[in-house]
Amino acid sequence: MIEIEVENRSGVEVDEQGACELARTVLGAEGIDAGELGLVFVGPDESQALKQEHLGIDEATDALAFPIDALDDLPDGLPRQLGDVVMCPQVVGDEWRAPLVHAVLHLVGYDHGGEMEAREGLYA
After folding, report:
1. Looking at the whole model, is its pTM more than 0.85?
2. Which candidate, 28, 43, 73, 106, has a CA 20 to 30 Å from the CA of 85?
């Protein structure tokens, strides 16, 4: 089972259940049926600070991915730590699904390019 720890510190209401369902769908399609994922919703100021700190770009962003295990082989009995997805509802608005899919795909090892775009197209 995919365990998702959700934290909403964005100051706005978000569809936490819908986001968790979509993340589980994407992970299941990638062959991952067990692991742990963090899903954090932040405001624009925190989004901007994180993007500046980790990517050197001074702007708020829709979603960021912080992968841990990706699809690496793990010792038996060790739970897969997928990593964290950080989303800014004020940036994504009602169009949150595509950025969430994009970030989850980064967690499992996809980089920008044709292969990622093809996988993203499955959820459009």
Report:
1. yes
2. 73
